[in-house]
Structure formats: C-alpha cells, structure tokens
C-alpha cells in the first residue's frame, strides 16, 4: 500500500473523523514523523500493550543536566516543530506494514491499535521558544497515556536538543559582539547535512543572528539572506580584455578605475582582480562588496576595490564595502578603515570612510572576544563552521524522564548524585527582584500552593541540603504553560510563536539575567532550587528506592 503519510488512515484503512488539528502544517523536515524513533520505544510500547498498561497515565519531563559551552545558561528552542510533530503524529498503513515485518510475533490487534494512535490523549506544557533556561529544570512536561507519551521521547529530544544548542550558541555569539554589529550565518556548506543546515539557519536567527547565506532558509522561513562572492569569482578573471564592455551607465568605468589606480599609486595590484571587481560593479553597482584577499589584501585587493569604488561614486552609486577572509582581522580592519578615511578626505568622498567591513574565516566566540579586546573596525561577521557544527560542544544533553505514573511520583537513582531525577509532576517559576533581575528558579511539586509575590520562601538546592536561602520575590513568572491539549483542539492559543517573536523574546530574556551569569569565562552559576515539599519528597523517595548496601 502507498505511503499515505498524514492522511489519518488507520491500519485497516478506515477513515477516522478529522481532528481539529488536521490542517496543521507538517514539520520542516519530512523525516519528522512517528517512525523517526529508536526501536526501543516500539519494544516498550508492545510490552505495555500486552500487559494492558498502555492506557496508564504517565508524566514525563524533558531537561538537561549541564548547560552547554562551559556557560551557565541555555536558550530553549524547537517547540514550534514539536507542536507540528504532535499534530501530525500518526503511523501510516505502509509504516505499520514495515513494523509488522519487524515484529512478526506481535498480534494483529497490536498494529490495529497502533494505527489509531495520535496525540488526542496528550497534554504538553513547555517553556516558550527563546526562554532562558538552566540545568535540571523541566523545559517540557508531557502528560498522557504511558504508551503515547513514551513514543514521543526520541523525536521530541531530537527536535529540542540541536535547536536549543544552536540557539544558545548564536546567543553567545551575539553577546560577544554586542547589539550594534551584524551577524551572518554562513554555515550551509559545513552543516551536518541538509536538515542540520536548515535548523542551523533557523535557530541561529532565533538566537540573535541577523541573516543567513542559506537561500532556502530565506525562501521557506523568511530570514533575510545576503551574499558577497567567493575567491573563484576573482580567480576566473585574467585581464581587462575579458570584460564584455568597459561601460556602466554610458561611462567608461574601466578608464575611470585605471585613472584612480594610477593616481593613488597602486600600479602593482593584480589586473585580473581589478577586472573581476569592475565586472562585479557592472552587475551590482548598488551592492558593490568585494572579497579582497584572493592575492594580497593590502597590496592588491583593497587598492583595486578603492579604485573601482571611487569610479562608482563618480557615476552616482554608493559602494557597500569589503570582505576580509584571512589574516589578522583586527589589524587589517583598522588599517583599512584608516586608509578609507585618508582617501575619503583626499577625494572629498566622506561616504568612503563609512564603508562596511565584513570579516569571515573560522570565526568563533573566542575569536570575537579576542577581536573586541584588541579593538577592530569590523561592522559585520560571517560565521559558519563553528556556529553550525557547535564545535565547542556538539550536543546538548536533554533527557526525557518518567516522573509520575498513575498519580504516583517516580524517581530514577544513579551513583552520580547529579543524575538522580527530580520526582513528580512539577511547576517551574522564575523569581525576580524589584529591578526585574532574575534571582532564582523555583520548582514545586504538583498540589502545593503556588508561591506568592512578596512572600518569603525557602529555596533549597535539590541535592545539597546545606545549600538553602530565603527569597522574597517582587515578581514571579510561571515558566511552563499549556501548549498542547489533545482534548481541547491541539495547539493552544498563543503557543505557536513566529520565528521573529521568539527572536525578540531571546533579546528580552537575556536582559533579565545577571551579567556575571552570562559571562564568557567562569560565569556565576544561576540558582535552580526546589521547594521544601519537593526537597522532602525527593529525599524520601531516594531512601525508599535505594537498596541498603551490605558490608
Ligand atoms: N586579531 C585576531 N585575533 C584573534 N584571532 C584572529 C584574529 N584575526 C584572525 N583570527 C582568527 O585566527 C584564525 C586564523 O586562521 P588561519 O591561520 O587558518 O587563517 P589565515 O592564515 O589568516 O588564512 P588562510 O590560511 O585562509 O590564508 C581564524 O580562526 C581567525 O578567525
Ligand atoms: O570559515 P567559516 O566560519 O566556516 O565561514 C564560511 C567560510 O566559507 C567560505 O569559504 P571556504 O571556507 O569554503 O573557503 P576558504 O577557506 O578558502 O575561504 C568563506 O570564505 C568562509 O571562509
Ligand atoms: O556570502 C558570503 O560571503 C559567503 C557565504 C557563504 C560562505 N562564505 C561566504
Ligand atoms: Mg575557510
């Protein structure tokens, strides 16, 4: 039978009545579907079904233990795609046929049931995309039947881990350059496959980049695209005679550029490069931005650029600038800005000193901090490899853990204290002082009264009983909100944010966090705390479940 995708076919081919979310768009990647999972989800679900436990009520939570990039914060991202995944969650007949072949001993009724499974029975609470988050706290809480909630694990983690990692990486690059520099994502060629590249472009933008070189991301996601040119373009020209015409707007651009070249005393610059720049100016007179390091930045690229730029001014155009792709970016940018300023004054072309200097070449967060420290004249950075591959930390460790079953809180123990899970369905709050600065995050167990503004509250470290503090928050913000309710129309009003809204949210969120927590080197840990009641429950369950050793 043909792959019917999301058409709501059951295993036996009967049509179900359409769900309220049946028109929700598909996830960005066509791979995102129930089959994009680990086989152990299916093995568990088959066992639950055999034991008639598949309808038990379960609560799972998504969290990471350690913040990435040796930092103390992360940015939540990927919820937008999670919601589309939930709305389209349905095994097709063809997929069920495949699974039948993999589990030949399973009863036909199992596949009939699997064919009816969707997210009707599921509720999801989550942080909004773009929210600042910290270790150990629930980013997403999934409530539903044991079987369906279990089936969501792997895909959900896949949809959250990389987006949150890249959004965090992008936000860190933004913090490194400040708000007045332009950041372009150039990573398409180096990203981990097409899906990795699309996610990288999307979530770099969410994290604070201004644009991308990725044309498909521009087309599908509305992100601003831009492009300069590569070395190949310059290499492809040998001399001025390969130009189709010397003219632009009826005037001889070649003559003018050559006149400036000799007046400025640049007679040694590479003529092929000059021809390439003239040809580029003829095609892009209003967007004239040249890569200047193909042969020699200071002795050829910049002189050739300046000769053509001055000629363009004479014809009434405003050139854009240059791109540096090698060498000492701090030194070169300052040297070139000074040069632009001198020529601007010699030729009464004040705009020349304002030309944009773009830098690329293996840039990462450390390079950006080093450049700021040294001082530079760069206006825009193109960042590829380090950004999209998250070379400094290639994975975020979000996990998906069962915290409650049939109303009973559950715990998972570990020899490593930090790996012990926090039991029970939990609520998460952020406490602020009177200046709007975040003081601490606070988790309570379900059923406790919500904390109140102006009330003195004991905030405890979950594992270290000695660490505790009283906090009287001026403002309290509950961080988890209902984003999906299968009984009430699926995606909840206000839960789907645009990319632009989430990007704006990141900027606002970072302003709420203390600078020493956001700091690049040795940041202060942000406090993630639990209530007295949750602390007691954790330690009680710990004792109850840990066998007493024998000496
Ligand atoms: N002033 C600077 N301070 C710190 N790092 C810099 C500075 N200028 C450039 N960098 C970084 O130093 C590294 C230089 O890399 P590399 O030595 O491969 O380039 P290059 O020799 O300049 O160029 P290429 O080999 O492509 O001609 C890059 O990661 C670049 O971003
Ligand atoms: O360095 P990244 O941060 O990944 O940025 C993207 C790089 O991609 C381009 O060239 P490419 O690296 O393909 O060739 P090049 O090194 O010879 O310039 C561009 O010139 C940058 O150098
Ligand atoms: O437009 C650019 O300059 C660009 C785009 C992708 C990779 N490197 C450079
Ligand atoms: Mg390179």
UniProtKB/TrEMBL annotation:
Q: In which pathway does it act?
A: Cofactor biosynthesis; NAD(+) biosynthesis; nicotinate D-ribonucleotide from nicotinate: step 1/1
Q: Which residues form the Nicotinate phosphoribosyltransferase C-terminal domain?
A: 425-537
Broad enzyme group:
ligase
Function recorded in the entry: Catalyzes the first step in the biosynthesis of NAD from nicotinic acid, the ATP-dependent synthesis of beta-nicotinate D-ribonucleotide from nicotinate and 5-phospho-D-ribose 1-phosphate. Helps prevent cellular oxidative stress via its role in NAD biosynthesis.
Reactions accelerated catalytically: 5-phospho-alpha-D-ribose 1-diphosphate + nicotinate + ATP + H2O = nicotinate beta-D-ribonucleotide + ADP + phosphate + diphosphate
The entry's protein name is Nicotinate phosphoribosyltransferase
Q: Which residues form the Nicotinate/nicotinamide phosphoribosyltransferase domain?
A: 184-421
List residues of the Nicotinate phosphoribosyltransferase N-terminal domain.
Answer: 35-161
Region Disordered: which residues?
A: 1-27
- Going by the entry's taxonomy, the superkingdom of the source organism is recorded as Eukaryota
Q: Which PANTHER family match?
A: NICOTINATE PHOSPHORIBOSYLTRANSFERASE
Post-translational modification as stated in the protein's UniProt record = Transiently phosphorylated on a His residue during the reaction cycle. Phosphorylation strongly increases the affinity for substrates and increases the rate of nicotinate D-ribonucleotide production. Dephosphorylation regenerates the low-affinity form of the enzyme, leading to product release.
Q: Name one Pfam family in it.
A: NAPRTase
Q: Which UniProt keywords apply?
A: Ligase, Phosphoprotein, Pyridine nucleotide biosynthesis, Transferase
Composition-biased stretches, type Basic and acidic residues, lie in 1-10
Which GO MF terms are attached to this record? nicotinate phosphoribosyltransferase activity; transferase activity
Give the family from UniProt: Belongs to the NAPRTase family.
């Amino acid at each position: 039978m043909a792959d019917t995708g999301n058409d709501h076919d059951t295993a036996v081919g009967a049509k179900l009545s359409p769900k309220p979310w049946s028109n929700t768009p598909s996830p960005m990647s066509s791979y995102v579907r129930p089959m994009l999972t680990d086989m152990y989800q299916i093995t568990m679900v088959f066992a639950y079904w055999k034991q008639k436990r598949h309808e038990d009520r379960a609560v799972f939570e998504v969290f990471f233990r350690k913040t990435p990039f040796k930092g103390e914060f992360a940015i939540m991202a990927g919820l937008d795609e999670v919601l589309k995944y939930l709305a389209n969650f349905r095994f097709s007949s063809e997929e069920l046929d495949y699974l039948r072949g993999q589990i030949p001993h399973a009863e036909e009724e199992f596949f009939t049931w699997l064919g009816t499974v969707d997210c009707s029975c599921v509720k999801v609470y989550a942080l909004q995309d773009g929210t600042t988050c910290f270790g150990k706290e629930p980013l997403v809480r999934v409530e539903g039947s044991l079987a369906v909630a279990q089936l969501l694990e792997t895909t959900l983690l896949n949809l959250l881990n990389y987006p949150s990692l890249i959004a965090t990486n992008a936000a860190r690059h933004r913090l490194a350059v400040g708000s007045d520099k332009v950041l372009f994502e150039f990573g398409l060629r180096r990203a981990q496959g097409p899906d990795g590249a699309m996610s990288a472009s999307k979530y770099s933008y969410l994290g604070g980049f201004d644009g991308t070189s990725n044309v498909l991301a521009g087309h599908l996601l509305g992100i601003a695209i831009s492009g300069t040119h590569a070395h190949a373009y310059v290499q492809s020209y040998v001399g001025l005679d390969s130009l189709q015409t010397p003219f632009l707007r009826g005037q001889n651009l070649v003559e003018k550029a050559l006149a400036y070249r000799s007046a400025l005393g640049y007679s040694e610059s590479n003529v092929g490069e000059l021809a390439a720049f003239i040809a580029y100016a003829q095609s892009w007179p209003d967007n004239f931005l040249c890569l200047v390091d193909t042969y020699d930045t200071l002795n050829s690229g910049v002189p050739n650029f300046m000769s053509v730029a001055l000629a363009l001014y004479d014809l009434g155009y405003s050139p854009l600038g240059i791109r540096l792709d090698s060498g000492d970016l701090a030194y070169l940018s300052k040297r070139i800005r000074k040069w632009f300023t001198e020529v601007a004054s010699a030729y009464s072309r004040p705009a020349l000193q304002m030309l944009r200097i773009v830098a690329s070449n293996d840039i990462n967060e450390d390079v950006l901090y080093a450049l700021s420290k040294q001082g530079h004249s760069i206006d825009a950075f193109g960042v590829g490899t380090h950004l999209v591959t998250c070379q400094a930390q290639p994975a975020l460790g979000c996990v998906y853990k069962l915290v409650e079953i049939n109303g009973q809180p559950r715990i998972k123990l570990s020899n490593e204290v930090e790996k012990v899970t926090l039991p029970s369905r939990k609520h998460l709050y952020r406490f602020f002082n009177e200046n709007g600065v975040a003081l601490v995050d606070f988790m309570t167990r379900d059923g406790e009264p919500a904390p109140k503004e102006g009330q003195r509250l004991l905030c405890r470290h979950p594992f270290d009983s000695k660490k505790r503090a009283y906090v009287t928050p001026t403002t309290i913000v509950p961080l988890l909100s209902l984003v999906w309710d299968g009984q009430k129309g699926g995606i909840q009003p206000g839960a789907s944010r645009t990319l632009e809204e989430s990007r704006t949210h990141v900027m606002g969120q970072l302003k709420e966090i203390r600078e020493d927590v956001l700091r690049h080197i040795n940041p202060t840990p942000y406090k993630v705390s639990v209530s007295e009641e949750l602390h007691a429950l954790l330690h009680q369950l710990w004792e109850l479940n840990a066998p007493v050793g024998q000496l």
